[in-house]
Amino acid sequence: MDIKLLFVLGVIRGTLAQADDQEEDDLSLPNSNVYYPAFLIDLKSTDLTYKLLSKSPFTYIVVDPDLVPMTSDEVIQLRKEGKIILAYLSVGQAEKSRHYWQDDWVPGSFPRFIDDSTPSKSSTRMNTRFWMPEWQSILRRYLQDLISYGYSGVVLDSVDTYQRFVQQEERLFPADDMIALIAGLRQQQRDFLLFVTNAVELYQDDLFRRSIDGIVATGTWYHTDVPIDQRNTNFTLGFLRKARADTKTILASDFPKDLTHVCDFYIKCTTEVFRCAVFDVRLNGAGESC
Ligand SMILES: *[C@@H]1O[C@H](CO)[C@@H](O)[C@H](O)[C@H]1NC(C)=O
Known about the structure:
Blueprint: H1 3-25, E1 40-42, H2 50-55, E2 60-63, H3 72-80, E3 84-90, E4 93-95, E5 125-127, H4 133-149, E6 153-157, H5 174-188, E7 193-197, H6 206-211, E8 214-218, E9 222-223, E10 226-227, H7 230-245, E11 249-254, H8 259-271, E12 275-279, E13 287-288
Parallel strand pairs: 1-2, 2-3, 3-6, 6-7, 7-8, 8-11, 11-12
Antiparallel strand pairs: 4-5, 9-10, 12-13
The structure holds 2-acetamido-2-deoxy-beta-D-glucopyranose.
């Protein structure tokens, strides 16, 4: 049984069923508004096959390139069908599960670009000194592989790692270092889409602005089910609206579970004319609709 496909169909069926309920229960609710995920982020599933994604209603699809069981030909075929397939790539953190990670990168003998100065919260990833040429050449090779495989583009994650180095002696302008890294990746292939996750404050910078095609914004209104302080939401929205006006693609995803929050997210997000989706916080592809 194709569970993923059931999910995709389930989203649509569930949504229609809820719309029906609304009409019966409460006519004052805006029953013409039916919300369901407008894109797919799934960084956990190993069963995202060509067949499944081809049948899915999503245009924008974000996957972990080391998990999807798709051949290069299948990725290219999806693109011919109008899909935009973005591969995940962490630039501010090195991940132990990736093929670039060496067996002898252990405490006491990490390469210099791995930052082990603070205990890592995650056992699977570590902050990088992302400005160092050794790390950047690993990233460039990785990006080249993704380009050659046929992906439409990449989602650069952990861009906000630069904040960790702000007001430290090590680097004077860590934000500029991050922007230079991203601008460098942009140079590598002009027509390969570059998306970044969050770190929207960098959008003040012209070079950054010119370097990216879109933003994956998470936690704009809700941190799981906790509403974000309105000042913070407004701060984020200031940059996202600017990016939207510049015709960048905004993939906005929060992770609430509570249906009231799910609906509130969709209404607020849709008002901004972003592409909106509620997912399980584990990013396993499970979506919520309203
Ligand atoms: C956030 O923005 C909205 C409208 O854009 C405004 O009504 C509200 O007062 C702002 N809130 C804060 C805390 O800045």
